[in-house]
């Protein structure tokens, strides 16, 4: 088995990073903008139903620090825990292209000034991509690693309406194609499972849409309720009920089985980093337990990413076989 897949029933992003950087890289999440078109109510948009006051940032304390301090502080903490050497600076909170171009460029330059920073990861929305932003990404791609994480969340307009995303399925598809046509950055998308009315057909169609797009990885989230969000109001009014961990794991299985083996998985589930803000479901606070539960669900069903995918090339066929073998490798007795 190729080193880096670690016997997992899916294609982990760590494998991509190991190959690219020759070892593990860790993300330093930073917060440099404090708004987005939704929160500002541009064109009648509303705050996304699941978004708390921190704009999906991992660390609320980041907002009190400048970029240098954030990078140095979080690098120190991560190094202490994991003996980490190499890092990517992840511009995570809010919409990171919703600011002046000069500010964006200064932030990128500041991050890349550190020897231990091997690249940038930029989180944004499908409707905040000016030609100048794409040009800037390409410029930085030519000198470093640049990855973009696009908040697509769903390819179904009724689900996007429920989430109050303020963009459509077509806008997401157009954004993905525009990024690929104008840049060579690594492109990942975020998806949310557990929306009301979501069926297995939606999950299968989502995988099929992604298979046909120039997307290199996906990050999966379970829709969970945080304090002071619209979703909390809906939950309290019994208009939204989060799915169980069992059901979420089953949905991930249905999606992964159809997903191309080329597409790497950044994360199998979201978890609430600020536990005191989590309203429901409680399992969204159990990061490792949920991750393992999903892996166990795949293994117990003797399935894996791409189990139902029809390979389109010898390379894909090889990757499908690799996924099949590695997913079985921990079920069967190991030969020395
Ligand atoms: S999820 Fe992103 S786009 Fe939506 S309200 Fe929060 S910061 Fe804005």
List the defining traits of the structure above:
336 residues; alpha/beta; 7-stranded parallel sheet; globular; binds iron/sulfur cluster
The assigned CATH architecture is Alpha-Beta Barrel
What low-confidence regions span 5 or more consecutive residues with pLDDT below 50?
332-336
What Rg is obtained from the alpha carbons, in whole angstroms?
Answer: 19 Å
Number of helices: 12
The string of secondary-structure elements, in order, is HEHHEHEHEHHEHEEHHEEHH
CATH C-level class: Alpha Beta
Tally of separate domains: 1
Provide an overview of this structure.
By secondary structure, the chain is α/β, with parallel strands linked by helices. About 40% of the residues lie in helices and about 15% in strands. It has one domain (about 15-330): Aldolase class I (TIM Barrel). It has helices at about 15-20, 35-40, 65-80, 100-110, 130-140, 155-165, 170-180, 200-210, 230-235, 245-260, 285-300, 315-330, and strands at about 25-30, 85-90, 115-125, 145-155, 185-195, 215-220, 225, 265, 280. The strands form 2 sheets. It has a 7-stranded parallel β-sheet, sandwiched between helices. Strands 7-9 form a two-stranded antiparallel sheet. α4 (about 100-110) links the parallel β2 and β3. The two termini are about 15 Å apart. Bound molecules: iron/sulfur cluster. Iron/sulfur cluster binds near residues 38, 39, 48 and 94.
